[in-house]
Amino acid sequence: MQTLAVAEKRETLAAIAAKMRRTSLGMVRAAGMGHPGGDLSAADILTVLYFDVLRIDADNPKWADRDRFIMSKGHCSALLYATLAEAGFFPREQLATYMKPLSMLNGHPDRNKLPGIEANTGPLGHGLPIGVGCAKAAKITGAPWKTFVLTGDGELQEGSNWEAAMAANHFGLDNLTVIVDRNRLQQGDGTEATITMEPLADRWRSFGWAVREVDGHDVGALADALHAVPFEQGRPSCVIAHTMKGRGVSFMENRAEWHHRVPTEEEIGIAMDELVERPE
Length: 280
Known about the structure:
Blueprint: H1 2-31, H2 36-53, E1 68-71, H3 77-86, H4 127-141, E2 147-152, H5 159-170, E3 176-182, E4 185-186, E5 189-190, H6 191-194, H7 200-206, E6 210-215, H8 219-227, E7 237-242, H9 265-274
């Protein structure tokens, strides 16, 4: 019976992730701008966080004991907005205003405009330092909530991340988890062609973090890892989620140009057909 319940949960999460891919890609097409490749690579991660892991209340977005989630890769805002709307933070109809003049759904998330957003992000390398501050505040006050930060892998070229990583270890922030969307592509090229990152897990460990690597498109593996934090008492946790840029759309997968390209009318039709079922 328990196995059946687990299987049903995974099936539900996979279906939500497929919907988030379709919704965010449709938003990018309608707006004529966005970052679809990264939206598609991170869809399973955000789905597991918002629909299985985070302690949040869409009816009370400022609940004092809520978990904090910071989308450091803020350029993937279409996915974040689609997820927040699906979770009930604001009406789904509002998604149609994405990127429009005076819309609350900016290209980068703004906590002053929409409920459910913890930090204004977009300038890469800012999310983890903010997350360290959140986690430290919880430690000081004895608050029970956890902080989760999603970073891109190309974003880790910013030195501010590693200063924050050192501070998190120094302060023993075992209430902090960073998730790396490891799709190995950034704007224009592969991450390893830009600045070598491997062995990435060992680098995090050398900064004092407890690390697990998972398939970032396996909702069950993601849920298991994120429910298990902290991996070690007294140490911050890092989940390296191995993903694929453009996941689920054949002509977008592993293609750097889809970091910031908008699908044509013909392409969006093909993509939506391919995204009817969760990609395997």
